[in-house]
Amino acid sequence: MNGFDIITFLSDFGWSGGYVASCEAAVTRLQPHARVMHISHEVAVGDVAAGALILQRVAPLYPPAVHLAVIDPGVGTERLPLAVTTARGDALVGPDNGLLLPAADVLGGLTGAWMLTPERVLIRAGLSGGRVSATFHGRDIFAPVAALLSSAVDPAQYGAPMDPAALVRLPPAISQLTPQGALAEVIEIDRFGNVGLALRFEDFVPGDGRLSVDVEGEDLPEWSARVVQTYGDLGAGELGVFCDSWGQVALALNAASAAQLLSVERGMMVRLTRSAAGS
């Protein structure tokens, strides 16, 4: 495999406490010339699905790179430490809990997978006799492996080959087109309160009229929404349906939180129904 100048880094560590810095230090000690590019460290604690979505969206925007991702509520348990390579040429390292595979899929698909062996990682990283923390594999396993991958060190030197079909995958987000509209899972609520749905805008084709918006299984009011191109097209307090920057159907208010208005959270189901004017 080829070496990489860039190592991207995603985690749920936050910026306090020195966890991010510790991982970056582990990379820099082994590969001082690599550029560590921070995708995000503000993913909700333990939210593997949210981290997987961010990594899937952002990793392809970089040139081929090593992608270090650590959202690891199962650290120290039987979950496996993992490195994978992809058809585009990228490598990804992190826990085998579903975090890496959506990104690997959009990077051309898996070409190899290795279960990382901590003792072999320490030896190959020049830390033989060192100790691996039971609770901080990000610093002690994943960051050193990211540096080794960046240096084009063959993963077989510190990992055992795995069958890619045996890797953990997250359940897919739910979406269903209906004759009247669509039913889709809430996959993202951003800091602005926009509500992203598991529905490609080009697949749904909501038209240019109005839709009714109903949160499935909740005793909540039904809302009317207008199909718009951007936030500024909406009046005060008016709910809009639009194509977000990732090509998904999303709900928004202008300068306010659609999530708060609708009382929705990630994982809830939203039904969109075309009105006569929008059909």
| CATH C-level label of the largest domain | Alpha Beta
What is the CATH topology assignment of the largest domain?
Rossmann fold
Contiguous runs where pLDDT drops below 50 for at least 5 residues: none
- The helical percent reads 10-25%
- Largest sheet, spatial ordering of strands: 2-1-3-5-4-6-7
Question: How would you describe what is shown here?
Answer:
This protein has helices spanning 19-30, 48-58, 101-106, 118-124, 137-150, 201-204, 258-262, and strands at 6-11, 35-40, 66-70, 81-86, 91-95, 110-116, 159-161, 175-178, 181-189, 195-200, 210-215, 223-227, 239-243, 248-252, 269-274. The chain has 279 residues and is α+β, with helices and mostly antiparallel strands. The chain folds into 2 domains: 6-166, S-adenosyl-l-methionine hydroxide adenosyltransferase, N-terminal (Rossmann fold, 3-Layer(aba) Sandwich), CATH 3.40.50.10790; 175-278, Bacterial fluorinating enzyme like (Elongation Factor Tu (Ef-tu), domain 3), CATH 2.40.30. The protein has a 7-stranded mixed sheet, with helices on both faces. Strand 8 (175-178) and strand 9 (181-189) form a beta hairpin. The model has no long low-confidence stretch (mean pLDDT 94).
Write the layout of secondary structure elements.
Blueprint: E1 6-11, H1 19-30, E2 35-40, H2 48-58, E3 66-70, E4 81-86, E5 91-95, H3 101-106, E6 110-116, H4 118-124, H5 137-150, E7 159-161, E8 175-178, E9 181-189, E10 195-200, H6 201-204, E11 210-215, E12 223-227, E13 239-243, E14 248-252, H7 258-262, E15 269-274
